[in-house]
Design goal:
The protein has about 375 residues and is an alpha+beta fold. The protein has three domains: about 170 residues, Uridine Diphospho-n-acetylenolpyruvylglucosamine Reductase, domain 3, CATH 3.30.465.10; about 90 residues, BMC (bacterial microcompartment) domain (Alpha-Beta Plaits); about 70 residues. It is built from eleven helices and 18 strands. It has a five-stranded antiparallel β-sheet with strand order 4-5-9-7-8, with helices on both faces. A four-stranded antiparallel β-sheet has the order 12-13-11-14, sandwiched between helices. A four-stranded antiparallel β-sheet has the order 16-17-15-18, with helices on one face.
Length: about 375
């Protein structure tokens, strides 16, 4: 059964009346695995509640399409700095991504590794918990709060603690221009070395990604953004600094640079390729040996190596292959029998269980997804 509440009150009533598991869904573009239960769609909870460009603040209902949010901001020369990815192509799905789904998944693209992930830009939320209670947390400005910081807690909870009805976001001005330095022919180790040099330089690199040779868009890509004259100066200085690693090609036309980073953001290089799709978060300097351990069919790096995208052979236990490391591996598609999330350490599992008992005491919302 599919439930489609059109207001927050109807959403509250639907959850309060539920007697079977519920699967919250915005546009159906970011779900992890085939969860069992009645689908609870939030797409009808759509529209802008408040937008103050001068205050860099946007309050929007959770079912609002992400594309509508981006168009609204672009008209005012602003953007979501964490660059939420569109994973429809790489996941092989159809649908419309919603802002509530973005927050619930903590979906963050190339800018997320430097400007902060989605959760770092969420100012406040309204949600309905597993009992049907409406909860509001945070506000229109970034500030400390007492008790639970639900704005951050809900980001990345994948609908297991409550169903978002409204989110308040911090937005930022869009840069005047962007340029990309690309180094060709580097293996993973040398690419991470170059990305680390760039990210620790004073030249304000806002994106650092590596796609191996033979893959569409191959190269070690370094993005710089800002005012045109400043970007031109910083590009030249960064190229000089990286000269010991390799000669850099400058992709300085904004359409070309923007198109390149949209592809990196949306992981298009891995779209249509065979194998289960995995996302590994780790220390950037650990990426080369993690790639060696993984035995992936194909892979790419973002966030200077801190985000590893992998296509793995079906039946291959990625977590066993990687062994212990500082980070975690999440399965996004394929390998249906493998948990999407890794087992939690005992102390973290106890905290997680306590939160679920507090916000969803009946165990109705995506039960078992993150347990």
């Amino acid at each position: 059964m599919i439930l489609r509440p059109e207001t927050e009150a109807e959403l509250s009533e639907a959850i309060a009346a539920a007697r079977a598991p519920l699967v919250p869904r915005g546009g159906g573009t970011r779900g992890l695995g085939a969860m069992q239960g009645d689908v609870l769609e939030t797409g009808a909870l759509s529209g802008v509640t408040l937008y103050e460009p001068g205050a860099l603040t946007l309050v929007v209902k959770a079912g609002t399409p992400l594309a509508d949010v981006q168009a609204l901001l672009a008209a005012e020369g602003q953007r979501l700095a964490f660059e939420p990815p569109d994973l429809l192509a790489v996941l092989g799905r159809e649908g419309v991504s919603t802002i509530g789904g973005v927050v619930a998944a903590n979906a963050s693209g190339p800018g997320g590794g430097l400007a902060g992930a989605c959760r770092d830009h969420v100012l406040g939320v309204r949600l309905v918990d597993g009992t049907g209670r409406v909860i509001r947390n945070g506000g229109r400005v970034m500030k400390n709060v007492t008790g639970y910081d639900l704005a951050r807690l809900m980001a990345g909870s994948h609908g297991t603690l409550g169903v978002l009805s409204e989110v308040s976001l911090k937005v930022l001005p869009a840069p005047e221009t962007s340029a990309t330095l690309t180094l060709h022919g580097l293996d993973a180790a040398r690419a991470v070395e170059a990305m680390t040099m760039a990210l620790t330089s004073p030249f304000e690199v806002t994106g650092a990604a590596w796609l191996p040779e033979g893959m569409a868009g191959a190269g070690t890509h370094l993005r710089l953004e800002g005012f045109s004259e400043q970007v031109s100066y910083r590009v030249g200085k960064l190229a000089e600094r990286l000269a010991p690693v390799g000669a850099a090609e400058v992709v300085d036309a904004p359409p070309r640079s923007a198109s390149l980073w949209e592809g990196i953001r949306d992981v298009r290089a891995l779209a249509g390729l065979p194998g289960a799709l995995w996302r590994v978060s780790a220390r950037g300097t650990d990426a080369p040996f993690l790639l060696e351990r993984a035995g992936a069919l194909s892979a790419m790096l973002d966030w200077g190596g801190g985000l590893i995208w992998l296509r793995m052979p079906e039946g291959h236990d990625l977590r066993a292959a990687l062994g212990p490391f500082r980070g975690h591996a999440t399965r996004l598609a394929g390998e249906a029998g493998t948990p999407a999330f890794p087992p939690e350490p005992a102390h973290v599992a106890a905290l997680s269980a306590g939160l679920r008992a507090r916000f969803d005491p009946r165990g109705l919302l995506n039960p078992g997804l993150m347990a």
